[in-house]
């Protein structure tokens, strides 16, 4: 059998046209730029840390994508393009060779080398560093990552090696065809060893931090602002137009929206749904609701009555009018979800197209199923529906409970808990039906579908199916994209048949953007945005 070599498409295209794809600002000819190139970005919270291995999620990621650069970046549609690496090749999707760009530099002028990545990735999985994102290295399949995290083998045994100054070899414990796109995750960003050894925990402070991204940290006032200025050593510095980025942490959506309307912010991370119609009326060109890589769903407790009966679960799922919830209860562009994996997921072509039946037909079938399960007017189904405190979750819960009562005579007790109590109830299985959601960690169907495998910690319904586990396992080692998609559709068919969850809607990523801010990648389903691609036009 011939072995094929897979090379990044971006690099092949680049070699043909003689350029390297960049994430820098692409300013159309004739554009009149503003004199002041300053952008003020809203983030939802004060970052827990600016250290890639100490960060916990999206808030930090927004800032760190400007300060550091991984092996690959994402283009405006979320596809992998060269970052610190110029190209990548593999013959079997298990051993990957990344060629680093010789012009990549740290902000202090030193070269970015393969050793920097070896050091940084070992640091991520070293147990004493207690990184909240160490699991990502194991999920990516990097050899020995889990054993190192568990303290069973030293970090030196991680499957990453510097062949020479600019060649990085990564060995995985299984074929992962989409591995390059995983390296855009902030947890796999490189860090500067000498700086960390010199300053210890203070290495991320203003004046100390050395990064390899398009910007440098120039000022920080906790809970007020993080200010970045261009890194002149960055390999694509010539395409940086913005001269100052100010990140402002505000965790109240309404407050952020008010600050935006007052002209204090150029872009928000979200806005209150109840203000959508008014905002659309007042500033139609500044309201954006692109599709997001996320699904909102209800999970059924498969381990106890009454929801351990598949007929009950199916009946409940079938009577949820998803169209009505998406259009009327929410109404900010969300799509009804009839399967778990969102439509914007890379490498997913759904065979289930919406519901096969009208809502009326589904309701009729649901009634028959519930009757077969032994429930009637004389013996109504009683259950609890648990959700965490939020106006949106409450509105959806009230709507769904009303559908179940009206169509099936179900007596629903709504239970609202604060986040920590809700998490405790979820983990201990103290619920019948529970609200849940999942935003993909990377853009590939397995980030959703692996959740329902029997050993996954994110398996809220405690669903246990050998057949399902086998299908996901087969998909994980399948290198042919068409066959892998077939496995993913089999997994969706099993979910539809056994209903451990009821997908309700696919997320949108609501935000406000000033008309003069250009270059924001609104079509990126993971919402990966680099300030390096922004520019401000005259206004």
Distance between the termini: 61 Å
| Rg over alpha carbons | 24 Å
How many helices does DSSP assign?
A: 17
Q: Main beta sheet: strand number and arrangement?
A: 6 strands, mixed
Give the DSSP E fraction (strand runs of 2 or more residues): 15-25%
Query: How do the strands line up in the largest sheet?
Result: 14-18-13-17-15-16
- The whole-number mean of residue pLDDT values reads 92
Enumerate the spans where pLDDT stays under 50 for 5 or more consecutive residues.
1-20
Number of strands: 21
* Helix percentage: 25-40%
Shape: globular
- Judged by helices, strands and strand pairing, the structural class is alpha+beta
Compact description:
With about 550 residues, this protein is of the alpha+beta class. It is built from 17 helices and 21 strands.
List keywords for this structure.
alpha+beta; 19% strand; six-stranded mixed β-sheet; disordered N terminus; 539 residues; 30% helix
Q: What are the SSEs and their pairings?
A:
Blueprint: E1 6-7, H1 9-17, E2 38-43, H2 58-67, E3 72-74, E4 80-82, E5 85-90, E6 95-100, H3 114-125, H4 135-139, H5 145-149, E7 160-164, E8 167-171, H6 179-182, H7 193-199, E9 215-221, E10 225-230, E11 244-249, H8 253-261, H9 276-282, E12 287-288, E13 291-300, H10 310-318, H11 322-330, E14 335-336, H12 359-372, E15 382-388, H13 391-408, E16 411-417, H14 419-428, E17 433-439, H15 446-449, H16 466-476, H17 481-498, E18 501-508, E19 511-512, E20 517-518, E21 535-536
Parallel strand pairs: 2-11, 15-16, 15-17
Antiparallel strand pairs: 1-5, 3-4, 5-6, 6-8, 7-8, 9-10, 10-11, 12-19, 13-17, 13-18, 14-18, 20-21
């Amino acid at each position: 059998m011939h072995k094929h070599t897979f090379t990044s498409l971006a690099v092949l295209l680049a070699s043909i046209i003689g350029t390297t794809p960049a994430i820098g600002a692409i300013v159309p000819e004739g554009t009149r730029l503003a004199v002041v190139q300053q952008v003020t970005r809203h983030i939802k919270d004060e970052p827990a840390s600016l250290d890639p291995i100490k960060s916990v999620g999206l808030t930090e990621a927004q800032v760190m994508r400007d300060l550091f650069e991984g092996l690959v970046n994402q283009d405006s549609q979320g596809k992998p393009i060269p970052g610190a690496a110029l190209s990548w090749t593999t013959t079997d999707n298990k051993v990957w060779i990344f060629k680093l760009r010789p012009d990549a530099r740290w902000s202090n002028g030193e070269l970015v080398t393969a050793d920097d990545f070896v050091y940084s990735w070992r640091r991520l999985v070293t147990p004493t560093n207690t990184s909240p994102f160490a699991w990502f290295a194991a999920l990516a399949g990097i050899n020995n990552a889990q054993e190192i995290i568990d303290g069973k083998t030293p970090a030196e045994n991680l499957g990453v090696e510097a062949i020479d100054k600019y060649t990085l070899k990564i060995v995985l414990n299984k074929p992962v065809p989409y591995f390059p796109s995983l390296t855009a995750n902030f947890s796999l960003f490189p860090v500067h060893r000498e700086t960390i050894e010199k300053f210890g925990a203070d290495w991320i402070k203003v004046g100390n931090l050395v990064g390899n991204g398009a910007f440098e940290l120039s000022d920080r006032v906790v809970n007020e602002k993080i200010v970045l200025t261009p890194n002149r050593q960055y390999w694509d510095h010539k395409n940086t137009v913005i001269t100052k980025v100010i990140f402002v942490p505000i965790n109240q959506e309404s407050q952020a929206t008010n600050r935006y309307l007052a002209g204090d912010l150029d872009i928000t991370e979200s806005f209150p749904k109840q203000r959508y119609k008014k905002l659309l009326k007042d500033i139609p060109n500044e309201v954006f609701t692109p599709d997001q890589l996320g699904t909102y769903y209800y999970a059924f407790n498969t381990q106890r009555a009454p929801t351990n009966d598949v007929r009950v679960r199916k009946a409940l799922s079938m009577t949820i009018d998803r169209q009505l919830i998406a259009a009327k209860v929410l109404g900010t562009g969300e799509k009804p979800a009839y399967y778990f994996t969102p439509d914007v997921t890379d490498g997913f072509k759904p065979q289930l197209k919406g519901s096969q039946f009208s809502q009326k037909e589904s309701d009729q079938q649901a009634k028959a199923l519930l009757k077969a399960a032994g429930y009637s007017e004389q013996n109504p189904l009683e259950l609890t529906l648990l959700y965490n405190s939020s106006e949106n979750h409450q509105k959806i819960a009230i709507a769904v409970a009303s559908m179940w009562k009206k169509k099936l005579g179900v007596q629903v007790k709504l239970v609202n808990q604060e986040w920590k109590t809700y998490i405790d109830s979820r983990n201990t299985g103290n619920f019948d039906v529970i609200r849940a959601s999942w935003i993909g960690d990377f853009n590939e169907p397995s980030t959703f579908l692996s959740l329902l495998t029997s050993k996954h910690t994110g398996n809220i319904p405690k669903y246990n199916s050998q057949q399902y586990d086998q299908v996901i396992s087969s998909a994980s080692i399948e290198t042919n994209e068409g066959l892998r998609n077939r496995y993913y559709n089999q997994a969706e068919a099993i979910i539809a048949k056994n209903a451990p969850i009821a997908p309700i809607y696919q997320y949108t990523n609501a935000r406000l953007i000033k008309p003069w801010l250009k270059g924001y990648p609104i079509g990126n389903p993971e919402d990966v945005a680099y300030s390096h691609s922004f520019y401000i036009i005259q206004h």
